[in-house]
């Protein structure tokens, strides 16, 4: 994918610019990141010749869409509001076309342990994990349960919420004595925590987009955080992480990573766009970590980097996805 894509910025039935509503904000920990993504998308779509409007996911959204219908909606909401499938189910009920994965697929992808189970069943490698709700530790004794986790998974470990994005609550644990505090911190972001075996290697973001010919992987983006852990601070603080797009991988490993990303997109039933996060070990094995159905689109986000590395324009890509959804709705 090296040629620039010319986006159809008009509807199939008339000569008026396609009207797009970009949803951003929401009431989650990722609100500010979402607003940054949404603002960026509106700017890109405006440059691409579309009539684009930024809207929040609040009580005024559905009446506003009913009064002034959009040809299609682009969801730049992060966190539960935009990724757990609930909002998409409501848009389906209202007959509003939107870019992105259907509600059921989003629910599956949002639940990281469930997504890992499906991906592993499809033959894709993913680190071993244990996911338990807060009640289990309270009822059975935190110390005993944590000891069993360490005995099963070893050290180091990655502790993360079982659902959520932007690496909120994610911590790498090298010492057993640091695990209890990490668990307490992680429970602030959700009732269930996933503890995962840490995989040493190169972290990559694998973007997938479907512009009408089936899902295709864009060049991998290599992530090299200064701290060694790609947490929230490393993601959104300029200068704390070095990115390489395309990733510095041998051709055969890059091809294998691309195949994994497309396979994940397909087995989870995703649509239009996604971003798979993976670790690549020194021997070239690709380990699936998680998938994002509403990837970040800020200035430090990996999806736009992958689009640029492929020789595409971000506004054109999003415009094509919106035009396709508007056409399918008709």
Structure description:
- Helix 1 crosses helix 13 and helix 7 crosses helix 8.
- A hairpin with a 6-residue loop joins strand 9 and strand 10.
- This protein starts with 18 loop residues before the first strand and ends with a helix.
- The N terminus is likely disordered.
- The protein is globular, with a radius of gyration of 20 Å.
- The strands form three sheets. Strands 9, 10, 11, 12, 13 and 14 form a six-stranded antiparallel sheet that branches.
- The chain has three domains: 82 residues, Rossmann fold, CATH 3.40.50; 110 residues, D-amino Acid Aminotransferase, Chain A, domain 1 (2-Layer Sandwich); 69 residues, ATP-grasp fold, A domain (Dna Ligase, domain 1), CATH 3.30.1490.
- It is of the alpha+beta class and 330 residues long.
- The protein has 13 helices and 14 strands.
């Amino acid at each position: 994918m090296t040629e620039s894509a010319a986006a159809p910025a008009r509807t199939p039935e008339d000569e008026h610019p396609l009207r797009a509503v970009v949803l951003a904000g929401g009431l989650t920990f990722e609100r500010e990141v979402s607003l940054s993504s949404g603002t960026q998308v509106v700017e890109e779509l405006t440059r691409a010749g579309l009539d684009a409007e930024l809207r929040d996911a609040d009580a005024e959204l559905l009446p506003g869409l009913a009064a002034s219908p959009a040809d299609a909606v682009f969801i730049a909401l992060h966190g539960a509001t935009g990724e757990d499938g609930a909002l998409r189910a409501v848009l389906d009920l209202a007959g509003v076309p939107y870019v992105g994965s259907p509600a059921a697929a989003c629910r599956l992808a949002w639940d990281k342990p469930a997504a890992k189970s499906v991906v592993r069943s499809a033959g894709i490698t993913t680190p071993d994990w244990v996911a338990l709700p807060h009640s289990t530790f309270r009822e059975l004794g935190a110390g005993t349960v944590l000891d069993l986790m360490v005995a099963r998974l070893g050290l180091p470990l990655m502790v993360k919420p079982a659902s959520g994005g932007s690496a909120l609550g994610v911590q790498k644990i090298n010492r057993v004595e640091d695990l209890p505090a990490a668990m307490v911190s992680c429970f602030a972001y959700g009732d269930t925590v996933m503890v995962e075996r840490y995989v040493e290697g190169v972290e990559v973001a694998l973007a997938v987009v479907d512009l009408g010919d089936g899902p295709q992987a864009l060049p991998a983006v290599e992530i090299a955080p200064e701290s060694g852990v790609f947490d929230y601070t490393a993601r959104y603080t300029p200068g704390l992480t070095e990115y390489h797009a395309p990733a510095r991988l041998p051709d055969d490993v890059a091809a294998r990573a691309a195949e994994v990303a497309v396979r994940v997109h397909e087995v989870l039933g995703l649509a239009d766009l996604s971003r798979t996060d993976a670790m690549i070990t020194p021997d070239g094995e690709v380990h699936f970590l998680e998938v994002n159905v509403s990837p970040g689109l800020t200035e430090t986000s990996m999806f736009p980097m992958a689009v640029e590395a492929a020789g595409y324009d971000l506004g054109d890509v999003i415009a094509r996805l919106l035009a396709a959804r508007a056409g399918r709705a008709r």
